[in-house]
Amino acid sequence: MTATFETQRAALAEVVAIPVTPFAEDGTIDRDAHRALLRRLVDGGVRTLTPNGNTGEFYALTPEERRTITELTVEEAGDRAAVLVGVGHDVPTAVASARHARALGAPMVMVHQPVHPYVSEGGWVDYHRAIAEAVPELGVVPYIRNPLLAGSRLAELADACPNVIGVKYAVPDAARFASFARDAGLERFVWVAGLAEPYAPSYFSAGATGFTSGLVNVAPAVSLDMIEALRCGDYPAAMKVWERIRRFEELRAADASANNVTVVKEALSSLGLCRRDVRPPSRPLTADERSEVAAIAAGWSL
């Protein structure tokens, strides 16, 4: 792998935070709250930020809003954190977003899984290749949720595009991940456990060196405790963190992750950090759910 991307590769072997997008009472982006949340993450020790990720409600944002989120994140990150900008939708839209990220100085883009009812493996390669070739200076990280995709296809993509340097792997199957990573080239890419803290221990045991997190919005120190334990190979310590966050993550994962973002925003709201508002197709929590989330957040050392 060329030395050009070593800094980006190192930034992926971290807690890769997926910041929420806070909304004001009128439904627009709350810029002040967003800046404050980003500063809280960076001040808390987080070194990699992903604007326009799924926890940021990527698919519920307009193109202009996605650009705004990218701009705010790059500004707040400064030289203290790397920025991995989420891009996606149709190829021209994804390319335009990637070029916007490049113009702002972001070093990497994460390509959301193609949203299409008919995705062929060859078409998956073509989609990512078109984006990666448009921004050869940037590190490119495919976000993989398709359990049928073969690891050899990722290798094929990287053969054509050496700026494909990492993978956010989000198939909930640790054995499948281990096979996929080895078929693609375990040492060739930085492997990011894309299903956050609940899957991080099992994915690290199979070769991941970073993990994404939405929980980090609420409790940066908790997420950092887990990655430090995993880096040391101290799986009992990592599982103690896992036990602390288990119920919170179960609430996020319930009903096919229907409340994935809502639970995070509810916790932030209970701490007075932003409003709880989410956009459809997400929904607010019930009163009982709100109480449980608030109690969990209050029990963490924040």
UniProtKB/TrEMBL annotation:
Positions bound to pyruvate: 55
What keywords are assigned to this protein?
Lyase
Q: Which Gene Ontology terms cover its molecular function?
A: 4-hydroxy-tetrahydrodipicolinate synthase activity
SMART domains, per database record: DHDPS
UniProt-listed SUPFAM superfamilies: Aldolase (SSF51569)
Identify the catalytic residues: 143 (proton donor/acceptor), 168 (schiff-base intermediate with substrate)
Q: State the source organism's domain of life.
A: Bacteria
Pfam families (UniProt xref): DHDPS
- CDD domains linked: DHDPS-like (cd00408)
Keyword Lyase appears in the UniProt entry: yes
Matching PANTHER family: 5-DEHYDRO-4-DEOXYGLUCARATE DEHYDRATASE 2-RELATED, DIHYDRODIPICOLINATE SYNTHASE
- Please give the family membership noted in the entry: Belongs to the DapA family.
Name of the molecule in the record: Dihydrodipicolinate synthase family protein
